[in-house]
Write a structure and sequence with these properties.
The chain is α/β, with parallel strands linked by helices. The protein is built from seven helices and nine strands; from the N terminus they run αααβαβαββαβββαββ. The structure holds S-adenosylmethionine. S-adenosylmethionine binds next to helix 1.
């Protein structure tokens, strides 16, 4: 088994293990984070009535649900079948399916918009590059991608999460690294918004929201 596959299996097992607790803890998190709400409103306005829109690494579906309430026709995709069970139970009106961001089973130029909240937190730098290439490939020209990450240089090894014994790395990324990867892949209009953590609401790391657009074809 390749190193990349092993690492993904670990991530899948983690979210299978904590699925119920994760859903209970994070399902209403946007209600406690005004900046999330502002960013998601902006995303929904920019997307308008374009379709389809996907929430990649959707977890229990809180971001998909928030966008759905803003009028976006959205579906969710995740690696963990157990977390998808939670998502389907809490949001039966939304379509969720299993999939891997690093090997998206979508046609080229087929998606109008994608959100990915903290979906890259277990990716190596190499996997972040692959994920951005996949997003670029599947987005339609003019398509919009919004994602978030923890800002920093550290990797945190976590051995207990939501009351369960686990063993997983959470990766932080510098904004320089993220910016240069996005640029290399070909994204344009890269807008990175950083913020301080909300104490007592979330883990106290600095956060970033990133809006990028896949350029429309230029006539020569
Ligand atoms: C930190 S959680 C974020 C979940 C949710 N978006 C949120 O904001 O709470 C990371 C999620 O990404 C999913 N994930 C990680 N790697 C993935 C991959 N390669 N493809 C699809 N989903 C992935 C995990 O299963 C997990 O549900």
């Amino acid at each position: 088994m390749s190193v990349m596959k092993q690492n993904l299996k670990k991530v899948e097992n983690l979210y299978d293990t904590v699925a119920k607790e994760y859903a209970e803890t994070f399902s209403d998190e946007h209600d406690k984070k005004p900046k999330d709400q502002e960013i998601l409103r902006r995303f929904s306005q920019d997307i308008g009535d374009r379709m389809p829109v996907w929430d990649f690494g959707c977890g229990p579906g809180q971001t998909a649900k928030y966008l759905k309430n803003l009028g976006i026709e959205i579906s969710g995709l995740d690696l963990s079948e157990k977390i998808l069970e939670q998502a389907r139970k809490i949001h039966p009106e939304i379509h969720f399916r299993k999939g891997n961001i690093l090997e998206l089973e979508f046609e080229n130029d087929s998606i109008a918009g994608a959100a990915a909240f903290y979906a890259i937190v277990h990716f190596t730098e190499e996997q972040v590059r692959i994920a951005f290439s996949e997003l670029f490939r599947v987005l339609k020209p003019g398509g919009l991608f919004l994602f978030t990450y923890h800002i920093g240089e550290e990797t945190i090894r976590v051995e207990e999460f939501l009351g369960k014994k686990i063993d997983i790395d959470f990766m932080f990324f510098t904004t320089d690294f993220i910016y240069s990867c996005l640029k290399k892949v070909g994204f344009k209009k890269i807008d990175i918004i950083e913020r301080e953590p909300y104490p007592e609401v979330e883990y106290e790391s600095r956060r970033a929201y990133v809006f990028v657009i896949k350029p429309t074809l230029q006539r020569s």
